[in-house]
Amino acid sequence: MLSPVILVPAILNGLLTGAVYGLIALGLTLIYGVLHIINFAHGALLTAATFAAFFAHRFLGLDPYLAAIVLTPLFFALGYCLQRFVIGPAAHGEDRNILLVTLGLAVVIENLLLYAFGADTRTLNLDYAFNVVDLGIAFLALPRVIGFGVVLVVALVLWLILSLTDTGKAIRAVAKEKLDVGHIYAVTFGLGTACLAIAACLLIPTYYVNPHIGNAFVLIAFTIVVLGGMGSVTGALVGGLFIGVVESLCGLYLGESLGQIGIFVMFILVLLFRPSGLLGERA
Amino acid sequence: MRGPSIAHIVLVIAVLATVPLLTPSNVVLNFLTVALLIALVGQGWNVLGGYGGQYSFGHAAFFGTGAYVTAILQMRYGVNAWIAFALGIAAGALVGAAIGALTFRSGLKGSYFALVTLAFAEVLRILASVAPITGAGVGILITLDLRPQAFQFQSRAPFYWIVLALLAVSLIIVRLIERSRFGAWLVAVRENEDAAKAVGVDTARVKLAAMTISAAITAAGGGFYVQYFLFIDSGIAYGPWISIEALLAPIVGGIGTVFGPLIGALVVKTLGELTKLIAGDAPGLDLVIYGGVLILIVAFAPHGIAGLLTDLRARFARLRSSVLGRAHG
Amino acid sequence: MVELRVERVFKRFGGLLAVNNVSLAVEAGRITALIGPNGAGKTTLFSIISGFLPPSEGRVFHRGADITGMPPHLVARRGIVRTFQIVQPFAGLTVHENIAIGAHLSRRSRADALDAAAEVASTVGLGDLLGRPAASLTVAGRKRLEVARALAAEPELLLLDEVLAGLNPAEVATMVPIIRGIADSGVTILMIEHVMQAVMRLAEHVFVLAEGRIIAEGAPRVVVDDPRVVEAYLGHGAAARLSAAGGAHV
User: Fold this and answer.
1) 3-class SS at C191?
2) Half-sphere exposure (CA, 13 Å, Cβ side) for B326?
3) What local confidence, expressed as pLDDT, does residue A259 receive?
4) In a domain? residue B86
5) Residue B181 belongs to domain with CATH number
6) Residue C250 has what pLDDT?
7) Is B181 close to C92, i.e. CB distance below 8 A?
C-alpha cells in the first residue's frame, strides 16, 4: 500500500486538488480577515458559480477557462451587492445576526438551485478533460494541472492588488483597524466571491455539478482556513495544499466517505485544541 | 421576569388539545402534529440559542440521535418502544453534554461554535449513512404494530396529544428556567460572559447545562418523529433541514421567549404548506422561502413575532396614555 | 489585616512586559487607589487579580490564601468583584435584572435577588430606573449600574476600574459619596482612578504604577508631590520645571 507508484500520484493529485481548495479557502479567509465574519454562504456561492460555469458551456459554448473571464467580474458584482445590500444592512452590525443572514443566504441560494435545476448530477464533457500530463511517475489530468497554475497566478494577482492598489491598502487598513466602511467590506466580499467563480471554472472540467457540491467543498475550506490561520492568505494556500494531500491519502486508505470524515474530524480537532497563537480571536 | 405564567401555558395547551375533537380531518391533524413537533425541536434550540445566546447550526445531531436510538433499540434489540423513546432522549442529552463539554471548554463561541456544531452534525450524518447499525444508506423501518404499547396508534389523535404533551413539558421547563437563578445566569451568559464571570457565574457549567437540556428536548422530537413516520435515514435524522427548522421556528416566533418556538413553528409550517399549494411539491422551494424568511426576520424583526407583538402593545399603551392624558387635560 | 497581597507579579504579552515585578498589599477596610499614566498596566493587574488573566510570574493572595490563576467566577465567589474599565452591562436586560444577577451570587431565589437588587439600586441612586433597559442609560448611569451590580454580589474586596472616567464634575461629585458609603459599610476598595480630586478625597493609600512598575506608594498628598510621580505623568524633567515655577499639585 505504501508503494511509491500509488503514493506519489496520490500526493501529486492531492496537491492539484489542494490548490483549488486553497483558492476557495482564500476567498473565505479574505472575507474573514477584513469583515471578521464567517461566511456561511461561501459553499452555496461556489455551487452557484459551478452551475454558472456549466450553463455557460451548455448554452454559450464557452470553455470553462474562457467562462472564468466573464464569470469572475459577474460574481465579484454579486458578492459586492450581497454584502452591500443584504448582509450589511440586515445584520445591523451584530455578529449573531451576520451568522444567521449568511446562513439564510446559503439556504436560499442552494435551494433555489435545487428547485430550478433539480438534484441531478451533471457533468461537462470536454474533449481535453481526459488529456494527461505524463510525469513518468504519475499521470496527471491536464485540467487539474492548468488549475494549479491558475491558482498560483490568482494568488499572485490578489497579492499584488492588496499590496499595491489604493483599494488594496484600504482593505488591509480596514482589516487591521476594524473600521466600518461599507464599500470596502463589499469589495472584499466581492473579491472572495470572485475567487469562487475562478475555482468553479477550474473544477468543472473534472468534477460534477449538483446543488450540494458547495457543501462538500465549504467545510473543507473552513478546515483549511482554521488550520492556516483566519485571515492569512498564505495560510489558506499552504493549508489547501496540505489538506488536498491529506484527503487524497485518506481516500486512498479509508475510501471516499470515511475520507470525508477525516477532514471533518480534523476540523473539529483543530477548532477544539488549536493553541490560541495559531489563530486570532475565538469569537 | 416578564413572560407567560404557568396558567397561560396550561390554557394554550388546553385549547390546542381540543383540536382533534373539533375536526376529523387527518390533513389538519397531520399538519398540526408536524408543526408541534417542530415547535418542540425549536424549543430545544431556544434554550441554548434564545436564552443562552449560543447559536447551534447542528441541532440535527440531537434530533437524529434521539430518532436513531429509539429506532435501533426497538428494531435491533427488541426494547419496548416507550423505553426506547426515553433512552433516545437520554442518548441525545449525552451527545449534547459531550459536544458541549468539548466545545465550551475550548472556549468556542459565536461563529466558531456554530461551525463546530455544524461539523458534528455532518460527521454523524456521514457515519449514519455508512454504518450498518443505522441501516447505512437504506435507513431503518419501524415495523407496523398499531398498539399503544408499541407507541403506535390506529388514529392520528393520540399522536397529536402526545406531541402536545411533550411540547407542554418543554414549555413548562422553559418557563421554570426563566424564573430561576439558572435562567438569570443563562441570560447573563448570553448578554456578556465576562461580566457574568465577574459576579460569580460559572459560565462553562451554565452553558453545558443549557446544552444538555436543549439536546434532550430536541432528541425527544427525534424519537417522536420516528414513531410517527416509522422511518428514519441519515438525511432525515442528521440532515441540514432539521438544523435549520430548529433555529428558524424560535427566531421567527421570538427568540428567547416561551411561546416563540410554537408561534414560529406554526407560521413557518403554514408558509411551507402555502408554498406547496402555490408552486407544487418541487424539492427545495420550501427551504428557499425559509431562508428568505430568516433573512427578513433578522433584518426587520430580530425579536420575531413575539417581539413585534410586544412593540405593538407598548406603542398602543403609549398612545392610550397620551390620548387619556390629553383628555384629562 | 491584609486583604489582598500581590507578590512579584509579571505579565508578558509576547514581547511586551505589561506588568513588571509588581508587589503590593491592600489593607482590609481601607480605600486604596492605583494611579498612573495610561497604559501603565493597571487594568492588566486587575485582570490578573480577578482571575481573568494568569500572571506570567508571581502570586496573588487573598486573606493569606493563594488565588493565583483561579478562574474569575471562583475569585468572585471568594468575595472579590471587579468592574470593567469599559462598562459591560447586560445590555438586553433591565437595570433591575442587571443588578439582580449580581445579587444571585449569594441568593438562590429570584424574588430574593430582585429585592436585594432594588435595595442596592436605591443606594447608588438608580432606584427610579429599575425598569429601564440597561442599554438606554447614560454613561454616568452605566457606571453606576456597573458599581451596583458588583455591590449586589456582596463583595469583601471591590475592584473599581475607573468608575469616574467620562463623568462630568457634577456626576463625579455624586459618585464620590457613594463610594465612601460602600467603604464605610466595611467593603475594602481598590480603585483605579485618573480623577485626582476623587483620589485625594477618597483614598487612604495610593500606589503609583508607571510602565508596569510601582514607582511610589503612600498617602495621597505625599505621593502626588513625589517628583518621580510627576515625571511619570508629565514627562522627564517636569518635576524640576514645576518646582522651579513654584511647585504644583499634579
Assistant:
1) strand
2) 5
3) 67
4) yes
5) 1.10.3470
6) 45
7) no
Give me the phi and psi of C190, to 5 degrees please.
Answer: -120, 115
User: Is the CB of residue C90 less than 8 Å from the CB of residue B188?
Assistant: yes
The 3-state DSSP composition of chain C as helix, strand, coil percent (nearest 5) reads 40, 25, 35
The predicted model gives A189-206 an average pLDDT of: 89
Determine, yes or no, domain membership for A134.
yes
Report CA A280 to chain centroid distance, whole Å.
21
Amino acid making up residue B211: M
Report the share of chain C in percent with pLDDT over 70: 94
Residue ranges making up the domain that contains B220: 6-328
Q: Do B120 and A111 touch (CB under 8 A)?
A: no
C-alpha cell at C79: 468575595
The pLDDT of A1-29, averaged and rounded, is: 85
Establish if B203 touches chain C: CB-CB under 8 angstroms.
Answer: yes
For residues B313 and B307, give the distance between their C-alpha atoms in angstroms, rounded to a whole number.
10
Q: Which residues of chain C neighbour B179 with C-beta distances below 8 Å?
A: 110
CATH number of the domain residue A31 falls in: 1.10.3470
Under 8 Å between Cβ of C170 and C61: no
Burial class (CB in 10 A: 0-12, 13-18, 19+), B8: middle
Q: pTM for this structure?
A: 0.90
Biggest CA–CA distance in chain A, Å, is: 57
> Are C91 and B180 an interchain contact pair (Cβ–Cβ within 8 Å)?
no
Q: Which three cell numbers stand for residue A180?
A: 466600518
| pLDDT beneath 70, residues of chain B | 1-2, 326-329
DSSP letters spanning B187-225: HHHHH-HHHHHHTT--HHHHHHHHHHHHHHHHHHHHHHH
Residue with cell 464605610: C184
- Report the side by side order of strands in the sheet with C157-161: C80-82, C157-161, C188-192, C31-35, C205-210, C213-218
Q: Using DSSP bridges, classify how beta strands C2-13 and B140-141 pair: parallel, antiparallel or unpaired.
A: unpaired
Residue A250 lies inside a defined structural domain of this protein: yes
Across chain C, which has 250 residues, the per-10-residue mean pLDDT values are 93 91 94 89 94 95 94 96 93 94 94 95 91 91 94 96 90 92 94 90 93 91 86 73 59
Q: Which among B285, B223, B190 is positioned nearest to B65, based on CA atoms?
A: B223
What are the distances in angstroms from CA C67 to CA C7, C28, C64, C202? Answer: 12, 17, 9, 27
Instruction: For chain C, list the domains and their CATH numbers.
Output: 2-218 (3.40.50.300), 224-250 (no CATH)
Question: How far apart are alpha carbons A33 and A38 in whole angstroms?
Answer: 9
Residue C191 falls in which region: left (phi positive, over 0), alpha (psi -120 to 50) or beta: beta
Alpha-carbon gap: A219 to the closest alpha carbon of chain B (Å) = 8
Dihedral sign, Cα of residue C128, residue C134, residue C135, residue C139 = positive
Question: Alpha-carbon torsion C133, B254, A283, C101, what sign?
Answer: positive
Total count of domains within chain B? 1
- Contact criterion met (CB below 8 Å) for B128 and B122: no
The nearest CA of chain C is from the CA of B37 a distance in Å of 30
pLDDT interval class at A275 (50, 70, 90): very low
Is B61 in the C-facing interface, judged by CB distances under 8 Å?
Answer: no
Q: What is the ipTM of this complex?
A: 0.90
Determine the Cα–Cα distance for residues B131 and C181; give it in Å rounded to an integer.
67
Which chain C residue has the Cα nearest residue B184?
A: C101
Domain extent at residue A158: 4-273
